[in-house]
Task: inverse folding
């Protein structure tokens, strides 16, 4: 059994964490990232996918700061400090962004051995594993299997978009655009199709008090992933795991160290 720490028996160096930096994706856009190196002799690293809402920024930041392994946190096209137009859909584009991040890390001599995403990012990491399959351990938190069942905030604007095609509103002091085409993409996304083609060791983590995406959704992933689901974790938490971030850190760190 190998681990991050086993490769260097000497005391680990202090955390080396950069300020926001940028890498260029295949569309020529600058995507924001920060990197945390806990063990400079280990070239393996966990990729943390980040986008709104604010609760996910908090979770991603906590993982980045508290995991005792090397981590690379980046923001998808259009989110946070990254260039481009944000989308509540564009799952294939997200997968491409992940692939570009993996290639960027490889160019720096680092190997992405873990990938974690929450809510929409969870959908994106599973789709990435089906399209590219280059990362060993995939963590999907609060993932929605039945994509045709829209979360409440999209249900509220569903009829408006069907009639008006586009809605622009303010989110975190920046404009967000919702379009009918985005809704169509979401509800037509077949997660059974992607589960059948997923690669790697996939770990499903879900809160049993999730009111945005019911816990029962996680059971569908377990069913469709079959032997590819290497772990299913039921957490006493809401959709955003508020108050139990330490439990997520413990789960992810143990799996990454043991695999």
Result:
């Amino acid at each position: 059994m190998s681990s991050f720490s086993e490769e260097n028996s000497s005391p680990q160096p202090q955390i080396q964490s950069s300020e926001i930096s940028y890498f260029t994706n295949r569309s020529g856009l600058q995507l924001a990232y920060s990197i945390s190196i806990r063990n400079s002799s280990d070239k393996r690293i966990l990729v943390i996918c980040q986008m709104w809402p604010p609760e996910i920024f908090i979770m991603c930041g906590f993982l980045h700061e508290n995991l005792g392994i090397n981590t690379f946190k980046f923001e998808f096209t259009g989110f946070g400090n990254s260039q481009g137009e944000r989308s509540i859909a564009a799952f294939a584009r997200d997968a491409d962004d992940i692939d570009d991040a993996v290639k960027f890390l490889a160019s720096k001599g680092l190997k992405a051995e873990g990938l974690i995403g929450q809510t929409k990012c969870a959908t994106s990491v599973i789709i990435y594993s089906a399209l590219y399959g280059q990362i060993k351990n995939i963590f999907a938190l609060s993932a929605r299997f039945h994509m045709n069942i829209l979360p409440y905030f999209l249900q509220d604007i569903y009829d408006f978009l069907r009639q008006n095609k586009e809605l622009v509103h303010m989110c975190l002091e920046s404009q967000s655009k919702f379009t009918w085409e985005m809704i169509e993409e979401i509800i037509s996304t077949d997660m059974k199709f992607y589960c059948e083609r997923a690669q790697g060791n996939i770990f499903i983590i879900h809160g049993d008090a999730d009111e945005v995406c019911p816990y029962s959704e996680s059971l569908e992933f377990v069913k469709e992933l079959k032997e590819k689901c290497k772990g299913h974790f039921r957490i006493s938490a809401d959709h955003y795991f508020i108050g139990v971030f330490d439990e997520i850190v413990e789960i992810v760190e143990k799996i990454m160290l043991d695999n």
In short: The CA atoms of residues 82 and 157 lie 26 Å apart. The radius of gyration is 18 Å.
